[in-house]
Design a protein that fits this description.
Oligomer: single chain
Shape: globular
Number of strands: 8
Strand content: 15-25%
CATH topology: Rossmann fold
Order of helices and strands: HEEHEHHEHHEHEHHEHE
Distance between the termini: 25 Å
Largest sheet: 8 strands, mixed
CATH class: Alpha Beta
Structural class: alpha/beta
CATH superfamily: Thiamin diphosphate (ThDP)-binding fold, Pyr/PP domains
CATH architecture: 3-Layer(aba) Sandwich
Length: 268
């Protein structure tokens, strides 16, 4: 019988996770740490923590970290990058932080083509404060503040952030992935790697949107929450690469042909 062992990345600390069982934040933290180690960026990377469930990310990543006010992570990251252009600067934000109070910040950072990387977790609700309806809550989805389901005539439509930002001229790389199965986790790591490499090459703004489970606020068992991502979230938020550099180095360095805009990613 073949045995496999796993060595945690050096950038990931041994801190005990505070996240709920089945939450995707821990998985994405590990992937970010692995990418930083793989690219040899640990000593020159600065992370910007947002307000939300991931507010304690600085406990899990052994990096220089800066806390930002709610929604202001892109502005803080912009300031750090402009003062220290040799650093790799990334934000880690949830949907309430990025798509609600921070919507102006992220749109204008993307429009300016700021050379920063954004890891955006979309779990379709405000997880930290009790599961209220967020800008990303699906039509008909029940939350603490929409017990009858999101009513489009009253609440409007959810924001598709990857599509919205990819329509701007500033971004170099925009992708949406999911961590609901092993294939999706592998794809997510590849996308985060591409986003960091875009910043290394000075190509401009990059963002990876990650569909992630929130079993506690969704009122589901972890496995049920993973199935819900596949059956409900991906149907509304299709996976894919929405914007990507087309130069030759993308193929040589990323090890795969760049996908065309809005090309669906098959996650099994």
């Amino acid at each position: 019988m073949t045995r496999f062992s796993y060595t945690p990345p050096n950038t990931l600390t041994p801190a005990i996770s505070h996240y709920c069982p089945g939450c995707g934040h821990g998985v994405v933290h590990r992937l970010v740490a692995e990418v930083i180690d793989d690219l040899g960026l640990r000593e020159k990377t600065v992370g910007v923590a947002s307000v939300g469930c991931s507010v304690l990310i600085y406990d899990y990543l052994d990096l220089d970290m800066q806390e930002a006010s709610h929604g202001r992570a892109p502005a803080v990251a912009t300031g750090i990058k402009r003062v220290l252009p040799d650093r790799i600067v990334f934000t880690y934000q949830g949907d309430g932080d990025l798509a609600s109070i921070g919507l102006t910040e992220i749109v204008h950072a993307a429009a300016r083509g700021e050379n920063i990387t954004v890891v955006f977790i979309n779990n379709a609700n405000y997880g930290m404060t009790g599961g209220q309806m967020a800008p990303t809550t699906l039509p008909g989805q029940k939350t603490a503040t929409s017990p009858g389901g999101r009513d489009l005539t009253r609440d409007g439509y959810p924001l598709r952030m990857a599509e919205l930002l990819s329509a701007l001229d500033g971004p170099a790389y925009i992708a949406r992935v999911a961590v609901n199965n092993p294939a999706g986790v592998v794809r997510t790591k590849k996308s985060i790697t591409k986003a960091f490499r875009c910043q290394q090459e000075g190509l401009g703004f990059s963002m990876v949107e990650v569909l992630s489970a929130c079993p506690t606020c969704w009122g589901m068992e972890p496995l049920t929450a993973l199935r819900w991502i596949k059956e409900q979230m991906i149907a509304y938020y299709p996976l894919g690469v929405f914007k990507e550099p087309s130069h030759v180095r993308a193929v040589a360095e990323y090890g795969e042909e760049p996908q065309s805009c809005r090309h669906e990613i098959k996650c099994g």
